[in-house]
Every structure is written in structure tokens, then in C-alpha cells.
Amino acid sequence: MIRLFCGASMLALAVTPAFAQTADNPDSVAERPDRDIKTSQEIVVQADIGFRNRSEAAEPVLVYDEEYFQRFEPLTAGDALKRVPSVTFLSDVIESDGARLRGLDPGYTQILINGEKVPGGQADRSFFLDRIPAELIKQVEIVRSSSARRSGDAVAGTLNIVLRDGYTLDGGYVRGGALLFDDGKVKPSSGFYYGGALGPGRVLLGANVQGRYNPKKKSSLRFGDSPENDPDFATNEFDNREDQTDIRNGTDYSGNVAWGIEGATTDFEISGSYVRTDRTESERSFEYDDPTAITGPVRTSTPGNLLTDNANVNSIDQESWSLGAELDHRWALGETKLRVGFARFDDAQDEFEYEVDFDRSAPRFTGDLTTRTTRDDEVFAKLEHVFGLGSGVDFAIGAFAQNKDRATNIQTIRSRFNLTAADRSGYDQFSRDPGEFAPDNFPALQPAAGGLNTIDEDRRDVYALVEGDSGPLRFEAGVRWENTEVRIDDQTVGAGLGSSRTDYDALLPSASFKYQVGAGRVTGSVARTMRRPRFDYISPALLEAELGDNDLLGNPLLRPETAWGADLGYEHRIGRTGVIGVNLFYRDVKDLVEIANTGAEGSEGAGTFVLQPRNAGNGEVYGIEFDLSSDLGFIGLRDTGVFGNLSLLDSNITDQFGERRFNGQSKYVYNFGFIQNLRTLAAAFGATYRKQGAAVDRLVGEEVRTTYGADLEVFVEKRIGDSFTIRAVGSNLLDSAKAETFNKFTTIADQIDRDFDEYELESERAGPVFQVVARYAF
């Protein structure tokens, strides 16, 4: 890391004199007329409505600038993406973390920051977008297909989050606001941003502090069977009810800095970003023996006896930062680009779970303590050279190298003992807490099975492509070869059994075109992509009773899933700013990772097995996507902007239980809304409405069906002069609820025979959130 930082700094010092020589001519950064540098007043006071941009790239790319999102005041990149096509979430209510492009699991979507991958704490390699404050975003790009220039980890597509740099802002502004939640809690937010000339170049400084809070209420009803077996299950098979409060409370700190200089032949930029999350997740749960009644922790014939009292507190401290440098030089033999970078993600969590079980002859206290630390480091270098072949055609060759080092340490301990009669007497679950029975000192922590490991993953890629334009046609065709070597050392496995090494190659061709037809454009693409295996699946550890009563054994020899995909679309310009588009997509996925039965008996005895992920399946994903973004100037309403998108999604997999869709894929997602600008009043207002369809997950031992209510957001804005804006936003105004149905089974045979261990109905609700935000430009 230090060597990389020093190298970037020396590179900056080496190239600065060359730029200084051009600082006084018209090609210098500060004076170049072709730069689209917006003043702080233009960013703070939006006199016009933002619309979806038309990308000129050959690839099918949708571009949304910050003006498209800002008026609805999204807190994070995930919140912003709720208004773009084909992005769904299976997050908690009023949270948007793991983006699911085309409805697929987050691991199928490639997340880039400024065009480069960044490490995240998730085992499936996904990056949670709620870690990126929306205020730092310049634009969001949805790349529907793949290119040889980028990593092929993009079966569903790519979401590229472009942060602000020195060429996006001239001047500065401050931001301040507050959020009011359903339970009366108020959380502040603030920020400072500045862009301007510095030496021969330009600098961007941004910092943001955002209070985060999410108070939720959950309710679960559990049964011993399901309606498919027992029409009268509600009365005959009731087991217990759980009432739960769940509060997520924390603060995000973030910032980014960029300094760039441009000369007649050479451009240079150095940039960095930082995000820190301090968060506490507190859950309190009560289980009762009646669907509605509440009494106390006494075994009586009266309904509403308290069965268990559970308190769960997880303290989360996450920190990520990155540093990168880029050099772009144009010379007689073409254009050469070099980019180097380092990124780190640290995740530390301390989770306490205390429970008192009253549903036994002697009440029992159980205390679990789990500590989790993950450090994920990535260092990369990318070199590309573009040759001009004449007649508007270029040939590019490039190489990419990345080293990933991931260390995980999960340790846990349990303390258990019976409570005295005095402890039980007079127990009031609303005034007492199970934590008061916790011992002063837990026993020594012990590594959890599979929880103490290191993973080293080294990539070496090369690529070549041809691109160009000829009249109405713009095209790109290329191929990328990716080589990956993975080394795993799991210290929780017996000596000599926890280390493994594997490597694999992938050849990934791609091609795209864009053809102009009058006011419209036809886009098409075909590409081969891949998905690398989950980290927890390639660990050699054996996790007992992980899937129902079945054990899960990791498989270090898992290969990546691969997919051939195609996109075909058409977009049409409407008036000055509008665009309407339609796109068809298809993915043929091979070597799907499915859970297979090894045949070995599981740790729970007869009827249970040791299961293992294997490359054993194939699947198809397909759908159609519509999007619209336009003002109504063609009917005389240029200050009325409308937007909308609709995606119809489908897929097919055959597993050991039969046919199903890809896990977690909603059947549809749509969003529509409007913005009305009131120029004479220097004001604006608007609304957006969003809904996504049901999603089903089927795993060994559990099946989950998830549905969401609709989401309505409204804003009102007042502009004062040319430097001040105040905005009020209401979100989740329909009290959107999340409902989940769980089918739980003990063994594979039980799941096939539909012999339920438990059937659960769970609902989750969070109330409206109101936000007031003011910005002042200087």
C-alpha cells in the first residue's frame, strides 16, 4: 500500500512540470471551453428538470446524472437506484443495500466505482450500495452488456457509480438537513463540497456526515404444517407467535478527493474516497403461545404465556477507503492509459444474543457472543494502448492485474445455565432484559467452524478489441482472457486438510453496436460473462446442521458460472430532452452452483446428509425492459417532466426439487413519477411511485416467498435567489410492508414429501420518513 501511494505521488511530481508548461495556453484545464464544469449554483439551484442521458458508447448503457435523482434526496447510491430500470432489492423495509440487476442475486451484478471494482464484506462478492452517500455521486451508469475492457463478472450487467471529480464542480456549497422517523427520532445530515483550480489543474473536496436510522416492527406466526397440507392449519397447527422490534441506528462518515490536470497531450488524476459506518442493530423478541394474547412468563392455561425473551445487539464498525492514480498520454503511436489503485474494506462486528427460555421446567438463560472481523485488500494495475487504424477505427490492447487478500476471523462462545425461582418470580418482559442475567465474563472465544481463514486470489487478464464508427454505425468487438489463481488456508479444519489451491481460465468474447435510424437508435450486443464462486462455498470447512439438519461441506474446486447473453434494444428521442426505450435480454447460464448430496451421513444422524456446492446446473434468464424520461414540451408543457420504467423478468432452473426461477428474482418491477417546475414561483414539486413483484428463494431446508408493498415518495422545493435551495421530502408514505412466508424442513426427503418442520408467516413494517434539506452555494 505504501509503495503504491509513493508511486502515485512520484508519478504526480514527474508529470506536473509537463502540465505547468501548458498552464497559460487555451488548452490548460482551467480555460478549456470543452469542459462541462458546472458551477455550484447550477448544482444547488436546479432551474431545469434532469432526464436520462443518451450514451454515445457502442455498448447498451443508460446514464443518469445527479440531477435525475437529487430532488428526491436519496441518502445512498442504493436509494438512487430505486428509480432506474430493472433494479430490485430484497433488503429490509426503507433500506437499499444489495442491488439485484434483472432481479438476480447481487453476486451476479458487477458494481464499479469510477470504473473499477472495489472490495466488499459479502461472501458472495457483492458490494452493498448503501455504503455510498448519494451526495458524492456524479452519475450512475447501467451497462446492460459486457465489454472486453471490463472484468467479465457481470452476468446480469454492471452498475458503475461515478463519483465527482475536479471537472464536475466550480465553487462550493454546504448542505444541512434532518430526517424525522416514525417513532419521533430525528437524525442530522450535513456536507461540504468544493471544486476549483489548484496549480495547473483542478481539485474536488467532498465530505458528508449522515445519520442513519430505521425503526421496524416485525410479527411472526409459526405453525407445524402449512395450508397446502392442512386447510385448517390456522387453528389445528398453531405453534407460537413472535413480536419483535428491530432498530438500526448509526452514522455514516464519507468523503472523496480528486486532483486532475490536463495538458495538450497528457492528462493525470489522483483520487481517493473514504467511507466509515458506525452502526448498532438492536432486536428484542418475545415468543408467546397464542396468536394474539399477552400474559407473562408463567405456565398456565391462560393464553399468552411468554415462551422466550430474546435480546440481540450487533455493534458494527465498517471502514473502506481507496486510492487511485491515472495517467493518459496521447502521442504519435496512439493513446496510452495507465491506472493503478489500492482499496481496503474492514468489517468488525460484535454480536451479543441473550435469551431466557421459560417454556421448560426450569427457566434457562443462553448467552451467545460472536465476533467477526474481515479485512479485504485489493491492489490492481491496468494498462491500455489504443492504435488508430484510420477511417474512424481504433484497435486497443490491454492488460489487467489484481491481487486480493481476504482474511476472516469469526469466533464464538456460548454460556448457558438455569435461572433461580427468584429470577423468574415477578419477571416483566417489558421492564427487564435477558442481558441482566449475562455473566460478567464469558468463557474464552473459540473459532467458529470455517470462520478462521485467509483467501488469496490473483488475477491476470489480457484483452484486445476493435472499435469505431462509420456514418450511422458505432461498433465494438473484442475478447478478454481471464486467469485466476485461488489459495485458501482454513485454520479451523484439521492439520493439512484446510489448505487448497486452484486456478481457472475464461475466454470472454463480446460485441456491441449502435445504429442511428432517424430520431431513433437500434442497439445490440452479445457477450460471454462469468460469476466467480462465493467465498463461503470454496472454504473446505464442514458446517454442521447448516442447512436444516444437514451439514454443509465447502468445495475449493468450484468453477465459476458462465453465461452467454444477448441484448437487443431500441430508443427514440422525444423533443429536446426526452428518450423512450425498450430492450430485450437473454442469458444462458452454465455450471450453476447447486447444493448436491455427497451421500455421507450428516452429524444429526440417520436421514440427514453432508451436502456440498457443485457445478451441476444450468439456467436461463430473460425479460423485457421499458424506460421513459421526457418533458412534455411537445404538448406545450416544457416544465413538466415525466419518467417511468417497467421490467418484466423471468428465468428457469431445474434443481433436485423440480423447476423454479432464479432465487430472489421478482417477476416485475416498475417505477413512474413526475416533476413539475414552477418557474414564476422559483419552486418545484414531484412524486414517484415504485412496486416490485414477489420473489421466491428455494434452498435445501428452507423456501422463502417475499413480497413488498408499494413505495411512494413526494418532494416540495423552494429556490431562493441563485444560491439557496430548501427541499422537503416524504418517503415510504404508504407504510410499505415486507411480508415473508417460510417453508422449513428437516431433511431433503421431508422437503420433497412436503413434510414441514415449520411454516412461518412474517411481516415487517417501518413508517414514513420525512426529510428537510437545505443547500447554499458560494
From TrEMBL:
Residues 216-238, 281-304 are annotated as: Disordered. Residues 1-20 form the signal peptide. Pfam families: Plug (PF07715), TonB_dep_Rec_b-barrel (PF00593). Keywords: Cell outer membrane, Membrane, Signal, TonB box. GO terms for cellular component: cell outer membrane. Residues 276-695 form the TonB-dependent receptor-like beta-barrel domain. It is found in: Cell outer membrane. The keyword Membrane applies. InterPro entries: Beta-barrel_TonB (IPR000531), Beta-barrel_TonB_sf (IPR036942), Plug_dom (IPR012910), Plug_dom_sf (IPR037066). Residues 55-158 form the TonB-dependent receptor plug domain. Belongs to the TonB-dependent receptor family. This is Outer membrane beta-barrel protein. It comes from Tsuneonella aeria.
